[in-house]
UniProtKB/TrEMBL annotation:
MF annotations from Gene Ontology: transmembrane transporter activity
Chief location category: membrane
Transmembrane domains' residue ranges: 12-37, 43-61, 73-92, 98-115, 136-157, 163-181, 210-232, 244-267, 288-307, 313-334, 346-369, 375-394
Nucleus in keyword set: no
Cell location: Cell membrane
Protein name (record): Predicted arabinose efflux permease, MFS family
Span of domain Major facilitator superfamily (MFS) profile: 1-399
Topology term for the membrane: Multi-pass membrane protein
This protein's UniProt keywords: Membrane, Transmembrane, Transmembrane helix, Transport
Species this protein is from: Amphibacillus marinus
Cellular component aspect of the GO annotation: plasma membrane
Length: 404
C-alpha cells in the first residue's frame, strides 16, 4: 500500500505542472471576451470559436492519449504537454490572425488532454475508496492555483502591460517547468495494488447509472467550464458602471472578473479536498450532487436580472463555491465508477464528455448572443440543471422502491 503522504506528493507534483501550463489559457479566458479586437478578430462569434476549439480537438485526442499512456511513460506525455503549452501561450502575444490563433488553440487542447488524463489516470490507480475524493479535490485545487495566477495577472496587468510581455513570462515559466519532470514525476502511471486489479482498457455495459454519471460529466463541462467561465467577464461588463475604485484605480470589468475567478482557484486547494473528504465518508454523494445542481440552477436564474455590483459579486462567489462542489462530486462519482469497473475507457469517456461540454459552452453561448441576450442563455442553463437534478431524483426514487 502506498502511504497517503506519498500519494499526495505525486498528485501535487502533477497538479503543479498542470497549473503552470494553464496560466496562459486562464488569462485568455478573461481577456479575450472583452479585448477581442486587440487579437485581430473581426466578429464576436470568433471569440466563441477560439474558446471552444481547444476543447473540440480533445474529443478525438483523448482516446489517443489514453492509448499513449498505456504504451509510453507518463513523463513523456507531460513533457510533450508542457512544450505545446509554452508554444501556444507565447503565440497569444504575437499573433493577430484568427486562423493562426485557431491552430495555437488546437495545440493547447492537445496539451491539456495529456495533462488532464495523465492526472486522472494516476489518481484512479493510486487511490482507494477511502481517499479518492480527497486526492481528486487536492489535484483540482492545486492546478487551480495556476488559473488563479493567469486570471489575476491577465485581468489586472492588461491595462498597464502589453499582452506580449504577459504571454512571454507565462511561456517562460511553463518552459522552465520541464526541468522538474525527471525529479517529481514518476516514469509510469502507478498501479494501486490494494484494489482488485489494474485498470484495463476494457468495454463496459452502458447502464442507467453510467448514462446518468456521464450526462452529468457533459453538463458540468458545458455550464461550468464552458458557458459560465467564458461569459463571466461579459456578465460583469453588462452590470458594471465603472465606479469601483481601489487605491485610486478604477477597476475594469476584466479585472473584477479575474478577481472573482481567482478567488475560486484560491480557495479550491482547501475547499475541494474538504468536499472530497466529505464524499469519501458519506453515503449521500448523489443527494449532495442534487442539492448543488438545484442551488446552481437558482443562481443562474438570479443572474438573469440586472443586479447592483456588490450583490452581483456576492452571488458570483456563492456560485463559485457551489461549482467547486459540483465539479469535485462529479469527478469523484466518475472515478469511483471507473474503479469499480476497472476500465480506463470509463475515465477516458468522462474526460471526453467534459471536454465536449466545455467546447459547446462558449460556442453555444456566443452564437446565442448574436440573436438573444445573456439572460436567456443563463435561463436555459438553469433549466438544464433542473432537468439533470430531476434525473438523479428519479433514480433515487426507483432505488428506494426496489429496496422496499
Amino acid at each position: 500500500m502506498i502511504a497517503m503522504n506519498d500519494k499526495k506528493k505525486k498528485v501535487m507534483a502533477l497538479a503543479s505542472l498542470t497549473g503552470l501550463a494553464i496560466m496562459g489559457d486562464a488569462m485568455l479566458l478573461i481577456v479575450l471576451p472583452i479585448y477581442w479586437m486587440d487579437f485581430g478578430l473581426t466578429s464576436i462569434w470568433q471569440v466563441g470559436v477560439l474558446l471552444s476549439v481547444n476543447r473540440f480537438i480533445r474529443l478525438p485526442i483523448n482516446p489517443l492519449v489514453g492509448w499513449l499512456y498505456s504504451k509510453y511513460s507518463l513523463r513523456l506525455g507531460i513533457a510533450i504537454a508542457l512544450i505545446l503549452a509554452a508554444i501556444s501561450t507565447f503565440s497569444y502575444g504575437i499573433i493577430q490572425h484568427f486562423y493562426l490563433l485557431l491552430i495555437m488553440r488546437m495545440l493547447w487542447g492537445i496539451a491539456w488532454s495529456l495533462l488532464r488524463l495523465g492526472g486522472y489516470l494516476s489518481i484512479v490507480n493510486l487511490s482507494t475508496d477511502q481517499d479518492r475524493g480527497q486526492l481528486i479535490g487536492l489535484y483540482n485545487g492545486t492546478w487551480g492555483i495556476g488559473s488563479l495566477i493567469g486570471m489575476l495577472v491577465g485581468g489586472f496587468l492588461i491595462e498597464f502591460v502589453t499582452l506580449f510581455w504577459i504571454c512571454t513570462v507565462f511561456s517562460l515559466l511553463c518552459s522552465c517547468s520541464l526541468l522538474l519532470i525527471r525529479k517529481h514525476i514518476p516514469a509510469n502511471i502507478g498501479n494501486n495494488t490494494t484494489t482488485s486489479g489494474k485498470l484495463q482498457r476494457s468495454s463496459f455495459k452502458i447502464t442507467k447509472e453510467a448514462l446518468l454519471v456521464l450526462t452529468t460529466s457533459t453538463v458540468m463541462g458545458l455550464l461550468i467550464f464552458g458557458l459560465f467561465s467564458s461569459t463571466l467577464s461579459l456578465l460583469i461588463d453588462l452590470n458594471y458602471q465603472g465606479n469601483l475604485t481601489v487605491l485610486s484605480l478604477t477597476l475594469s470589468a476584466s479585472a473584477i472578473a479575474s478577481v472573482i475567478q481567482a478567488i475560486r482557484w484560491a480557495w479550491d486547494p482547501i475547499l475541494a479536498p474538504a468536499v472530497g473528504r466529505y464524499l469519501d465518508h458519506t453515503k449521500s454523494k448523489k443527494q449532495f450532487l442534487v442539492t448543488a445542481l438545484i442551488c446552481l440552477a437558482i443562481l443562474f436564474s438570479v443572474l438573469t436580472r440586472s443586479i447592483p455590483l456588490q450583490w452581483l459579486i456576492i452571488i458570483l462567489l456563492l456560485f463559485q463555491i457551489l461549482s467547486t462542489s459540483f465539479v469535485t462530486t462529479t469527478d469523484t462519482l466518475a472515478s469511483s465508477f471507473a474503479a469499480r469497473k476497472k476500465s480506463v475507457s470509463i475515465m477516458t469517456l468522462h474526460t471526453v464528455l467534459v471536454d465536449l461540454g466545455a467546447a459547446l459552452g462558449p460556442l453555444l453561448a456566443f452564437n446565442l448572443l448574436e440573436i438573444s441576450s445573456l439572460a436567456t442563455v443563463y435561463l436555459l442553463a438553469g433549466i438544464v440543471l433542473i432537468g439533470l437534478a430531476v434525473g438523479w431524483l428519479v433514480k433515487f426514487d426507483k432505488r428506494t422502491l426496489d429496496s422496499n
